[in-house]
Design brief:
Shape: globular
CATH topology: Rossmann fold
CATH class: Alpha Beta
Strand order of the largest sheet: 5-8-7-6-9
Bound molecules: hypoxanthine
Number of strands: 9
Number of helices: 7
Helix content: 25-40%
Radius of gyration: 18 Å
Largest sheet: 5 strands, mixed, barrel
Order of helices and strands: HEEEEHHEEHEHEHEH
Structural class: alpha/beta
Number of domains: 1
CATH superfamily: Nucleoside phosphorylase domain
CATH architecture: 3-Layer(aba) Sandwich
Length: 280
């Protein structure tokens, strides 16, 4: 992508952001991205809902179980922008489209991103349905949302990723999990393109690389957030053991959604309690 295309993209993000700004009554400080089947994790009564098809230039998702809207309002006294659903590279979207909303968050002045997803468990210490704090990631997508001319207004050319999943937010999440008696494991997330699930041989290879979880999202959004100076907390719901971990098991999207639905309430409780104690 040449420099003028990059300029054009930034202009589109600005137009989309301006529309959202006109519609909402708060200045959001925290954004929360709800992954597959996790759109109902938080209570959303008083606030504004903006469906993605109302927003100029916004990429529109095609996957069942992915609602496409933003909700802006207050939860536990914090000003929140909730993103219900996301778009993925496997749907054919470019990595810039996948990261579009996070760049909007940056322009909106959002300082913290809580990102959730459904993931396959590579680590056999994890059980189906467990929540896992993402400690770090491996980008196996073969692309990066920062490729191309840098958006100097948003962040540096070569951002440091040493603490991408903020250690202070992870400490807070672990304290909250322990005080609310929610099991929260920890692990490294590897992002693959999909949409086919992995082969058992791939999962063995990823385990050797140091991955505990595998999924098809999150990494583009996190790189984009870190670039823009947004602090990130990532939580996965382990919806299935990854391919080959249980040789008899077979993977299906239906099962993934079923498990996330079962865990929605617990994840919601964890996030609301984290919001209560989040430093401002
Ligand atoms: N692999 C990739 N993505 C996933 C999986 C998986 O096993 N489960 C949920 N999302």
């Amino acid at each position: 992508m040449n420099a003028s295309c990059r300029e054009e993209l930034l202009q589109k993000i600005e137009e989309a952001t301006a529309m959202v700004q006109r519609r909402i009554r708060i200045e959001p400080e925290v954004a929360i991205i709800c992954g597959s089947g996790l759109s109902q994790i938080l209570p959303t009564e008083d606030g504004e809902t903006i469906t993605w098809n109302e927003i100029p230039h916004f990429p529109l998702s095609t996957v069942a179980g992915h609602r496409g809207d933003f909700w802006a309002g207050e939860i536990n006294g914090r000003k929140i922008l909730l993103q219900r659903g996301r778009v993925h590279c496997y749907e054919g979207f470019t990595i810039d489209e996948v990261s579009f909303s996070v760049r909007m968050f940056a322009l909106l002045g959002i300082k913290t991103l809580i990102i959730t997803n459904a993931a396959g468990a590579i680590n056999s210490d994890f059980a189906v349905g467990e929540l896992v704090l993402i400690t770090d990631h491996i980008n196996f997508l073969g692309d990066n949302p920062l490729r191309g001319e840098n958006f100097d207004r948003l962040g540096p050319r070569f951002p440091d990723m040493s603490d991408a999943y903020s250690s202070r937010l992870r400490t807070l999440a672990k304290e909250v999990a322990s005080s609310t008696k929610i099991t929260l494991k920890e692990g490294v997330y590897i992002a693959v393109l999909g949409p086919s699930y992995e082969t058992p041989a791939e999962i063995r290879a990823f385990r050797t690389l140091g991955a505990d979880l595998v999924g098809m999202s999150t990494v583009p959004e996190v790189i984009t957030a870190v670039h823009a100076g947004i602090e990130v907390l990532g939580i996965s719901c382990a919806t299935n053991m990854a391919a080959g971990i249980d040789p008899q098991a077979r993977l299906s999207h239906k099962e993934v959604i079923k498990v996330t639905k079962r865990k929605e309430q617990e994840l919601g409780k964890l996030i609301t309690s984290i919001l209560q104690r989040l430093p401002s």
